[in-house]
Amino acid sequence: MLLSTTHLGTYLLSNMMILLLNLIKIPRLQLFYNKFFITIVVNIPTTSVFTDGSKADEHVGFGVIMDDASYSHILSVFCSVYTAEAMAISYALKLISSSQYRKFCIYSDSMSVLQQLEHIENATHPILLNIADTVYYLKNKGCDIVFCWTPSHVGIVGNEKADYVSRTASIPIEHTIPLADIRKSVQHYILNKWQETWDRQVNNKLHRIKPSIVLWPIFPIRGFDVKLTRLRIGHTWYTHIYLLSGDSVPLCTSCNEVQTVDHILTKCPDFNSSRLNFFKTTILDLNDLVGETPHPNLFSFLRDIGFLFGI
Ligand SMILES: [Zn+2]
């Protein structure tokens, strides 16, 4: 039922088992597969060690359940949930190294960590490399260590306990923080600060159209993308050339309103028939036309009203 997979001498459940366990996601099959999973756990003559990592708000922690005892620690807030999952396994190995038993099965719900352990030759994560070294060391000492993926949040007792203690962990532990985690945290912090600054720019024309700083897709044709950007920021040749030429602000000859992108695209009654033709309505908001997904008829409309080459 178990399949040898790596040169480390670690093992993962065979693909068939993982396929079966994936079916646990179907609610009416959960009870059946919970029993099935427990049968596996009971029938494998090893010491079961459940591990879990968690990250929520400002709390990062991991938990390990072994021999009905629980162990948990908090980690730096910079750590990712992936690192927390890896730290849980690393800590489990530390417990194993001082245990009287010889055969262990480490259960983790982190498929990504287990898959990376399976291909440790490609890994760069420092804790995973440490796990690999420790498994190798313990194997040479005569330990038999098996890794097994377990689905999470489906009532498997060991996994539920590990999940609980990881989320409620309160004791710090000295540990290294992977550079990738720090880089991601710094990036997240900078983006948050940028968003906070942008949130205050309520008088900026672009803010109304794009309140979030997340990246928007780029138009495949560069010329259209440039025009779209000018419409979004409200600065076009036609509406702003007066700043360079020294002329007065251009006014709409029909409405006597200042010529703005908003006036031309959504307000000026001169273009209502074109709006009806291309957008099937005359009641429009700039977001409808130049938002994240521009209206498919936008450029046809601009050409029709003679504004396309004034942008
Ligand atoms: Zn007008």
Explain what the structure shows.
Keywords: Membrane, Transmembrane, Transmembrane helix. Residues 43-171 form the RNase H type-1 domain. The chain crosses the membrane at residues 6-24, 31-51, 71-93. The chain is of the alpha/beta class and 311 residues long. It contains 15 helices and seven strands. The chain has two domains: 5-178, Nucleotidyltransferase, domain 5 (2-Layer Sandwich); 205-305, no CATH class. The protein is elongated. The N and C termini lie far apart (67 Å). The structure holds zinc ion. Zinc ion is lined by residues 252, 254-255, 257, 263, 268, 270.
Low-confidence stretches: 1-14
Q: Look at the structure and name the CATH superfamily of the largest domain.
A: Ribonuclease H-like superfamily/Ribonuclease H
> How would a crystallographer describe the biggest sheet?
5 strands, mixed
| CATH class categorisation of the largest domain | Alpha Beta
CATH topology of the largest domain: Nucleotidyltransferase, domain 5
Please indicate the percent range of residues in DSSP E strands (runs of 2 or more): 5-15%
Total DSSP E strands: 7
Order of strands in the sheet with most strands: 5-4-3-6-7
Distance between the termini: 67 Å
Percent helix among the residues? 40-55%
Organism: Araneus ventricosus
Transmembrane segments: 6-24, 31-51, 71-93
Protein name: RNase H type-1 domain-containing protein
Keywords: Membrane, Transmembrane, Transmembrane helix
